[in-house]
UniProtKB/TrEMBL annotation:
One of its GO terms (biological process) is antibiotic biosynthetic process. Residues 308-421 form the Erythromycin biosynthesis protein CIII-like C-terminal domain. The lineage of its organism: Bacteria, Bacillati, Actinomycetota, Actinomycetes, Micrococcales. This is UDP:flavonoid glycosyltransferase YjiC, YdhE family. Keywords: Transferase. GO terms for molecular function: hexosyltransferase activity; UDP-glycosyltransferase activity. InterPro entries: EryCIII-like_C, Glycosyltransferase_28, UDP_glucos_trans.
Amino acid sequence: MASIMIAVMPFVGHVAPMRAVAEAFLADGHRVRVYTGAAHAGAFASLGAGVVPWRVAPDFDEHDLPAAFPALRDRKGPAQMLANVREVFINTAAGQCVDLRAAFDEEPWEVIVADGLSLGAHLASEHTGTPWATVSIVPLTIPSRDLPPPGLGIRPGRGPLGRARDALLRGILPLVSARLERDYRLARSDAGLAPGGRPFGDAWYSPELVCASGVPELDYPRRDLPSQVVYVGTLTPAAAAPPPPGRRPDWLPDAAAGGDPVVHVTQGTLNTEPRDLIQPAFAALGRQRVRLVAVTGRRGRPELPFPAPPNAAVSDVIPYAGLLPHVDVMITNGGWGGVLAALAHGIPLIVAGGDLDKPEIAARVAWAGAGIDLRTGTPSPRQILAAWRRVSADPAFRASAERVGAALRQHDGPAEVVQHTLRLLQARRAPGA
């Protein structure tokens, strides 16, 4: 039995996959504690894991980030991404480190398994000298000499001009990220660490083990992929539970028996303004012969500020184990967990990726041929209707989605994270290590 600390940033989209990882460690007989925000403590305590709450680090409500981080107010697009990285991830890192060091002093762990966006886990690992395994719950953003800088949502260039463009962008990146590098250095200092250490661009990934959600079929090819990276597929339990009574939409029995195609529309769990995507999707497809299923992404809040068409069902959240086997096309804001879940079922996608990591995810889906990148987070009804007609008429999209899905289904992500982490521990314990 090993003593495991799992660090999870307090976002629903981070908690769900890391909960599956915690469950896999517990099922394998290990002692598990989880460091996360108070709103998500119950999700891990219900598994039997110990919970270490954010104390010195400023806990927050992901649905009202400006309340804890005023600098995020009225930010959208690239400005939001940069402010998010600085305020939510870098400026909380020192506090996370303090919290984790206190937990380590109380009861040492053998390895810290961290959500890839938990910089505090990296700093705590450096302080304690314990190994650190990264679980990348978003697409890999490790820089490469073969790719444009990560996060821009653009595909690798082709030919001499395309490669020159990518090289130019890579050269500009240090200038753009200079302030983030300074903020990260201040966070290290505030955490009591000496100058030096890994540079900001490498600080998100363990030098020993990176368990990357996804598969190579959704990642651009590169010659310099670090040797510690392993792909683990989707981070969901191997056997997901069926929807609980009362949460199963009444259209599901009819959908299972055939009839009109089912189109799932989701705004995700962060930046859940339904007018951005759900409303134009309703306008585009409300008169089509489809069955629309929309989720607001806010548990306990299924209401929309506009009427739904007669062919639409609306819920707050729906467990994907019950929903996705009946879905023909998904229209999504591009959250990585939802995208992987859809592709694991061979469902082609229409992606409206507006900010944060979403444009990058949308570009990868289109590059893989598994869907259409709308290149905006606020598409018009006409854009959605045209994309839906393309995806529905061209079987190549479904074939590509199924190809990616077949690769995803080869994995049991949570179990593989456990296996790779235990190998890391064994290597550390070996004589002379």
